[in-house]
């Protein structure tokens, strides 16, 4: 039986930090973990964005097919735990490319589970884990990130209004859990795991039961996604609006 941990999001909840730590320690963890990055399943990740923009049975089927192809192209786990980490598996970051919610996250979880079972069997031991963040901090972080990286030119208050209908992440995880029950769905709050020595990846290491002596030998990953301050983002938005 293959054990699979799916870290499927959410955006701006410490995902990059988690992934960079796994990558930095990939060799040290290689006897324990088969780490699957977004780049390993890039076509599926791109198709997940299509599902977020144009949700339909056809785009979901295409996503599952691409994910199966990507997973089948990887080496066999050979007794290791498969850890898939890609926040695109919950859809687009709200605010990007016309997507203003995580509404497709439950259906993407369903299709991800089907793909995992198609590759590693119906008896695969699958657990989903979602890194989460308190709502206000998440909205502010997502806005500042898109101002910096995507050329976003709307004020914070407008962005907050557009995202007001998104449920808090615990409620969203509850919806996902209901769709894929009885598969375990866990949360890893950034407020709890971010301050730990290795950061949010500690939640995944807890889940796979990595012994303390092995964990102590791991190195923290490089700092990820250092963003603008709120004031810097406001000034950048104002300059873009003035130049428009």
Would you state the CATH class?
Answer: Alpha Beta
Q: Which percent bin holds the helix content?
A: 40-55%
For the termini, the CA-CA separation is: 57 Å
User: By helix and strand content, what is the structural category?
Assistant: alpha/beta
Shape: globular
The profile of the biggest β sheet is: 5 strands, parallel
CATH architecture descriptor name: 3-Layer(aba) Sandwich
- The mean pLDDT is 96
Strand content: 5-15%
Q: Fill in the CATH topology.
A: Rossmann fold
SSE series: EHEHHEHEHHHEHHHH
Taking pLDDT < 50 over at least 5 consecutive residues as the criterion, the unreliable ranges are: none
Q: Which strand order do you get reading across the main beta sheet?
A: 2-3-1-4-5
Radius of gyration: 18 Å
Helix tally equals 11
Total domain modules:
1
Count the beta strands: 5
Protein name: Sulfotransferase family protein
InterPro entries: P-loop_NTPase
Task: Annotate the secondary structure layout.
Elements: E1 3-7, H1 15-24, E2 33-36, H2 42-53, H3 57-72, E3 81-85, H4 105-120, E4 125-132, H5 135-150, H6 156-162, H7 169-180, E5 185-189, H8 190-193, H9 201-208, H10 212-216, H11 230-243
Parallel strand pairs: 1-3, 1-4, 2-3, 4-5
Helix pairs in contact: 2-3, 3-4, 4-7, 5-11
């Amino acid at each position: 039986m293959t054990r699979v941990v799916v870290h499927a999001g959410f955006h701006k909840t410490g995902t990059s930090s988690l992934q960079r730590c796994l990558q930095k320690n990939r060799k040290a963890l290689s006897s324990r973990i088969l780490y699957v990055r977004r780049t390993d399943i890039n076509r599926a990740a791109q198709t997940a964005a299509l599902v977020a923009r144009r949700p339909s049975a056809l785009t979901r089927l295409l996503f599952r097919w691409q994910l199966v192809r990507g997973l089948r192209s990887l080496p066999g786990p050979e007794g290791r735990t498969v850890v898939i980490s890609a926040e695109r598996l919950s859809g687009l970051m709200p605010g990007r490319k016309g997507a203003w919610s995580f509404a497709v996250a439950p259906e993407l979880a369903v299709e991800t589970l089907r793909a995992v079972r198609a590759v590693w069997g119906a008896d695969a031991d699958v657990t989903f884990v979602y890194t989460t963040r308190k709502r206000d901090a998440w909205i502010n972080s997502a806005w500042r990130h898109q101002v910096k990286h995507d050329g976003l030119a709307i004020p914070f208050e407008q962005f907050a209004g557009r995202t007001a209908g998104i449920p808090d992440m615990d409620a969203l995880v509850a919806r996902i859990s209901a769709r894929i029950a009885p598969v375990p769905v866990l949360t890893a709050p950034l407020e709890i795991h971010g301050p730990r020595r290795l950061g949010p990846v500690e939640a995944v290491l807890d889940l796979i039961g990595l012994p303390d002596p092995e964990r102590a030998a791991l190195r923290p990953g490089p700092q990820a996604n250092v963003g603008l301050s709120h004031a810097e983002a406001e000034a950048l938005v104002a300059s873009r609006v003035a130049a428009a």
